[in-house]
From TrEMBL:
Residues 433-506 form the AMP-binding enzyme C-terminal domain. Belongs to the ATP-dependent AMP-binding enzyme family. InterPro entries: AMP-bd_C, AMP-bd_C_sf, AMP-binding_CS, AMP-dep_synth/lig_dom, ANL_N_sf, ATP-dep_AMP-bd_enzyme. The keyword Ligase applies. This is Acyl-CoA synthetase (AMP-forming)/AMP-acid ligase II. Residues 27-383 form the AMP-dependent synthetase/ligase domain. It comes from Actinomadura meyerae. GO terms for molecular function: acid-thiol ligase activity. Keywords: Ligase. The keyword Oxidoreductase does not apply.
C-alpha cells in the first residue's frame, strides 16, 4: 500500500474517488489531533479542529464572490489567516497567487494584472497603496481587507466541506523570485504540492508532537515546509518577521524542537551576544536551504545550539524538495568529511532525476551535467507563458538549469547554475567553487562570485565580499590563489555591507552583475 492510499483511506475515501487535495492535509490532522495546536502566533493559538473550520469557511466565503478556476491574490505579511488561505483558496478550486510584500506597489500590481486575479486580499498596511493602483489591476472584482471586514465575511460562511476540485487544478500560483530575470508564474496543482509534501514527510525526521518554528515569509513557496509539518500533525509557530532576539525568545517560550533557517541566518545567530547562555534545550534540528553551509558554521552550530542539521534542495517549479541531505551526513561532515557540505543531498524517492549532457544523454558518474526532473511534483507550466513552458521541458523532463554531478554514494553536488557559470578566456569557472574557498577565510562572513564583462577575456571573475573583520582585496585574492587555479581566482573584489537576497535567502547575482558592471563602466570612463 502506498503512502498516498494510506492517507486517503484515513479520510474515509476508499472508493478510488477524487484524488488528494492540499486541504485534505488539514482534514486529516483535525481528525487525528483535533485539540492539538496547529498554529502559534504571538498570543494566538489555533487548533487543528479550528484550522479545519477556518479553511472550510474561507473556501465557502470565496465561492460566494468568485468562481472555481479564478486566481485569488494575497498581499500580507505573516499571520494565521495566511494558513487559512494556503488551504482554503485551493479548497475552493481557485489558485492562491502569492505576492511578495517586499516589492514596490507598482510591481505588485503588475503581478496581479499578469495573474488576471479576480480577488485581491490585502492586510491593512497595504490597502491604501493598492487601492491607488486599482486601474492597473482591471481583472480584480473584489478586494478584501484582512483587517477590515474580511473576518466578518469568512465568519458568516458555513464550516461545511466545499465541493472538491480536481487534483490537477492549479492550487498555488507562485511567481519565481527572479534571480535570473523577470518573475514567471509557476502553476502548481494539488497533485504537485501533495506529492512534494509526502516525499518530504518520508525523508525528514519529524517525530510526533514536533513543534516547528517557521521564520520565512509565507509569500514564498518555501512555505510548503509548514504544510509538511502540518501533515505530520506538528505544531507550527509563526513569526511576524525574523530577528535573533525574537527567535531565541520563542524557542524557549514555545519549546520549539525544529526550525528552518538560511545558512547566513545561522551564522548571524551564532554571533548574537550571549547566545551560549540562552535556553535552547528543546531544539533538536535545524533545516536549511538556499546555499551550502560552511563547515565552521556547522560545527559551531552543533556545539553552541546543541542540535542536528539537515538540508533540502528544490525550486518553485518542483513544488518542494527533490534532494535531501540528512542528519547522518551532516554529522559525518562535522567530524571531518567536509567535502560533503558541497553536496545538496540524495534524490528523494518520488522524484525521477537524470544528469544529462548537451545532447540529453546521461553522463557518467562523477561527470557534470544538467539535472533534469520528471514526476508528479513537476509544475504544470508557467502561467500565460507557453513558449517559456516549452523551453523548460524536453521530452517530458523539466530542465532545472543546475549543473550537477553525482558520486558513488548517490550524493548530488551542485556545480553551479548554468546561468552563473563564468566563461573567462575560454575556461569555465563555477562560481560556487570559488565561493566555497572564500567562505574558508576567517575574515569573510559572506561572499558571492559572478562574471563581469572583460574586453580581453570575455568575462572576468568578480567577488562581492561581506567582511567579518578588516581585510583587503589583495589578501582575498592571495587566499584564493592558494586554493584555486589561476583562471578561477577573482580579478576583482568588491566589499559590500550585505548581499542582495530574495525572501528565500538566495543571492540575487543579477543585481550584483548590474551594479558592478556599471561601476566598471564608470571606472573605464574616468
Amino acid at each position: 500500500m502506498t503512502v498516498k492510499s494510506t492517507f486517503t483511506e484515513s479520510l474515509g475515501r476508499r472508493d478510488g474517488g477524487p484524488g488528494m487535495l492540499i486541504n485534505d492535509i488539514v482534514e486529516y490532522a483535525a481528525r487525528k489531533h483535533p485539540g492539538r495546536a496547529a498554529v502559534l502566533f504571538e498570543d494566538e493559538t489555533v487548533t487543528f479542529a479550528e484550522l479545519r473550520d477556518r479553511v472550510r469557511r474561507t473556501a465557502n466565503a470565496l465561492l460566494a464572490v468568485a468562481e472555481p478556476g479564478d486566481r485569488v491574490a494575497v498581499l500580507s505579511g505573516n499571520r494565521p489567516e495566511y494558513f487559512d488561505l494556503y488551504y482554503g483558496v485551493p479548497g475552493a478550486g481557485m489558485a492562491l497567487t502569492f505576492l511578495n510584500h517586499r516589492l514596490h506597489p507598482s510591481e505588485i500590481a503588475g503581478l496581479v494584472d499578469h495573474a488576471q486575479a479576480s480577488v485581491l486580499i490585502v492586510s491593512g498596511e497595504y490597502a491604501e497603496a493598492m487601492e491607488r493602483l486599482r486601474d492597473a489591476m482591471p481583472t480584480v472584482k473584489t478586494v478584501l481587507n484582512l483587517d477590515d471586514g474580511y473576518g466578518d465575511l469568512v465568519g458568516k460562511a458555513p464550516a461545511t466541506e466545499p465541493p472538491r476540485p480536481d487534483e490537477d487544478s492549479v492550487a498555488w500560483l507562485v511567481y519565481t523570485s527572479g534571480t535570473t530575470g523577470r518573475p514567471k508564474g509557476v502553476m502548481l496543482s494539488h497533485r504537485n504540492l501533495v506529492t512534494g509534501v509526502i516525499s518530504s514527510v518520508a525523508h525528514w525526521d519529524i517525530p510526533d508532537a514536533t513543534r516547528f518554528l517557521f521564520c520565512f515569509p509565507l509569500c514564498h513557496v518555501g512555505g510548503y515546509t509548514a504544510v509538511v509539518y502540518h501533515m505530520r500533525g506538528a505544531t507550527v509557530g509563526l513569526v511576524r518577521s525574523y530577528d535573533n532576539d525574537t527567535f531565541l525568545r520563542l524557542v524557549a517560550e514555545w519549546r520549539i524542537t525544529q526550525t528552518g533557517l538560511a545558512p547566513t541566518m545561522i551564522a548571524f545567530l551564532l554571533g548574537h551576544p550571549g547566545i551560549e547562555d540562552r535556553d535552547l534545550g528543546t531544539l533538536e534540528a535545524i533545516g536549511y536551504g538556499a546555499s551550502a553551509i560552511p563547515a565552521e558554521v556547522l560545527r559551531r552550530g552543533m556545539d553552541v545550539l546543541g542540535c542536528d542539521f539537515y538540508q533540502g534542495m528544490g525550486m518553485s517549479e518542483l513544488g518542494g524538495n527533490i534532494l535531501h541531505f540528512g542528519i547522518a551526513e551532516h554529522r559525518r561532515a562535522a567530524a571531518g568529511e567536509t567535502h560533503l557540505l558541497a553536496a545538496a543531498g540524495r534524490v528523494m524517492d518520488l522524484a525521477d532525476v537524470r544528469i544529462v549532457d548537451e545532447d540529453f544523454r546521461d553522463v557518467p558518474e562523477g561527470e557534470p551535467g544538467e539535472m533534469v526532473v520528471r514526476g508528479d511534483q513537476v509544475m504544470l507550466g508557467y502561467w500565460r507563458e507557453p513558449e517559456l513552458t516549452a523551453e523548460a521541458f524536453r521530452d517530458g523532463w523539466f530542465r532545472t538549469g543546475d549543473v550537477v554531478r553525482r558520486d558513488a554514494e548517490g550524493m548530488v553536488y551542485i556545480v553551479d547554475r548554468i546561468k552563473d557559470m563564468i566563461i573567462t578566456g575560454g575556461e569555465n569557472v563555477a562560481s560556487r567553487e570559488v565561493e566555497q574557498v572564500l567562505y574558508r577565510h576567517p575574515a569573510i562572513a559572506d561572499a558571492a562570485v559572478f562574471g563581469v564583462p572583460d574586453p580581453r577575456w570575455g568575462e572576468s571573475v568578480c567577488a562581492a565580499v561581506v567582511a567579518r573583520e578588516e581585510i583587503g582585496a589583495d589578501e582575498v585574492i592571495a587566499f584564493a590563489r592558494e586554493h584555486l587555479g589561476g583562471y578561477k581566482v577573482p580579478r576583482r573584489v568588491e566589499f559590500v555591507g550585505e548581499l542582495p537576497r530574495n525572501v528565500a535567502g538566495k543571492v540575487l547575482k543579477r543585481e550584483l552583475r548590474t551594479r558592478f558592471k556599471e561601476v566598471q563602466r564608470t571606472e573605464e570612463v574616468s
